[in-house]
Design brief:
GO terms for molecular function: kinase activity. Residues 9-229 form the MOFRL-associated domain. It is a single chain. α1 runs antiparallel to α11 (254-267). This protein has 16 helices and 12 strands. A 6-stranded parallel beta sheet has the order 3-2-1-4-5-6, sandwiched between helices. A 6-stranded mixed beta sheet has the order 7-8-12-9-10-11, sandwiched between helices. The mean pLDDT is 96. Helix content is 39%, strand content 18%. It is globular. It is an alpha/beta fold. The protein has helices at 3-19, 22-25, 47-57, 91-103, 121-124, 134-147, 151-160, 168-173, 206-216, 222-230, 254-267, 283-300, 328-340, 371-377, 382-387, 391-398, and strands at residues 38-43, 63-69, 79-84, 112-117, 177-183, 246-252, 271-279, 308-314, 346-352, 364-367, 401-402, 413-419.
């Protein structure tokens, strides 16, 4: 890949991540201090960075507990930070969820709970419903990740198998005032889908969750099936009086990140086209559509002539069929490369803004017109890698992986296709 093109793509990704940094966003949404106590709770990949930003900006005393992904903790003085596993929950997350419920017990009407929520919080805060073991939740989570379900579908199931999600944590805070500060990593930015909505009301039902389970043929353990079929796993609804003092603010979103990347493109003399901030679907199928748009731009100057960049966000899915390392962004990128088939003057990047694509400590990768030719020369048939869901290995061996480490934020996937 031409160094100039890669540098521009990297700078657009960096701008997208920087726009969603908690240190920038948290101070803009601070509530008025209460007469009583201020308790901070939080969960998600960005929650520790959010807690640190809150501590630095808050004018009075506070205490709290936040759970984030292993490797994502940052120093805090008054808020306790714990780490747990993602994308499959572990015992540390279970202990944190129990401790969080205890943290909000006994609050009064003059107290304030500031809830810091970001993507990944659903897995980081596992508290199985009655009759469900942590091992059951782990197995269900793996099945949901592998079956191709959307994030909305996955979170619907998670909410109804939990004792803390789907508004239950907010209900436990009653009668205190609750202020949610959310960084969205979900298509559409619906608060109930960000970390499975522990502190917002949920209009979906146990029957909705059962329908999703049947749709994807997921085998439920007996306790989980009984919880859904009996209706005992029902979530807290939006009109529940215990949620009357809950307010929610979206402080960072995929759209904000795309707009920041677009500014970088304009400054470089490249026309940005934001195609959507909530694009979903099978990664390899979305890639075919994006390839068609890129080729139309190169050949016919539509919807814009070169130089232009096609920007998009959202969360694609991967149905695992092979034995590779997965990763929806790199799978998208490899499928894009196959569809473009070495078309000249088209370069791309696809990466997760949290720095982790799938279960790998790799954010994503870069694509160039010569990527497929270099792969063939290295003895890696591109289609074989795609069939094996092994795009991480593919781009890693080519030296085209994008490794950032923890970014301390999460506004979902970022895709940029540069037509020069």
């Amino acid at each position: 890949m031409d160094a100039g093109h890669r540098d521009l793509l990297a700078r657009m990704f960096e701008a997208a991540v920087d726009a969603a940094q908690p240190a920038r966003r948290i101070p803009l949404y601070l509530p008025e201090p209460p007469k009583g106590r201020t308790v901070v709770i939080g969960f998600g990949k960005a929650s520790a960075a959010m807690a640190q930003a809150l501590e630095r900006a808050w004018p009075g005393p506070l205490t709290g507990l936040v759970v984030t992904r292993y490797g994502y903790a940052v120093p805090c003085e008054r808020i306790r930070i714990v780490e747990a596993a993602h994308p499959v929950p572990d015992a540390a997350g279970l202990q944190a969820a129990r401790a969080m419920l205890e943290t909000v017990q006994g609050l009064g009407p003059d107290d304030l709970v500031i809830c810091l929520v970001s993507g990944g919080g659903s897995v980081l805060l596992p508290l199985p419903g009655a009759g469900i073991a942590l091992e059951d939740k782990q197995a269900i989570n793996r099945a949901l990740l592998a079956c191709g379900a959307s994030i909305t579908e996955m979170n619907c199931v998670r909410r109804h198998l939990s004792r803390i999600k789907g508004g239950r944590l907010a209900a436990a805070c009653h009668p205190a005032r609750v202020v949610n500060l959310l960084i969205s990593d979900v298509p559409g930015d619906d608060p109930v889908d960000i970390a499975s909505g522990p502190t917002v009301g949920d209009a979906t039902t146990c029957q909705d969750a059962l329908a999703i389970v049947r749709r994807y043929g997921i085998a439920l353990p007996p306790g989980a099936r009984a919880l859904l079929e009996s209706g005992l796993g029902e979530s807290v609804k939006p009109d529940d009086p215990r949620l009357a003092k809950v307010t929610t603010h979206l402080i960072a979103s995929p759209q904000m990140a795309l707009e920041a990347a677009a500014e970088v493109a304009r400054a470089a003399g490249v026309t940005p086209l934001i195609l959507g901030d909530s694009i979903e679907g099978e990664a390899r199928e979305v890639a075919k559509v994006m390839a068609g748009i890129a080729l139309q731009a190169r050949r016919h100057g539509q919807p814009a002539g070169a130089p232009c960049v096609l920007l998009s966000g959202g969360e694609t899915t991967v149905t695992l069929r092979g034995g590779g390392r997965g990763g929806r962004n790199v799978e998208f990128l490899l499928a894009l490369g196959i569809a473009l088939n070495g078309a000249p003057s088209i370069h791309a990047v696809a990466a997760d803004t949290d720095g982790v694509d799938g279960a790998e400590e790799v954010a994503g990768a870069f694509l160039a017109p010569d990527t497929l030719a270099r792969a063939w020369a290295a003895g890696m048939p591109p289609r074989d890698s795609l069939d094996e869901n092994d795009a991480h290995t593919f781009f890693g061996r080519l030296g085209d992986a994008l490794v950032t480490g923890p970014t301390l934020t999460n506004v979902n996937d970022f895709r940029a296709i540069l037509v020069t």
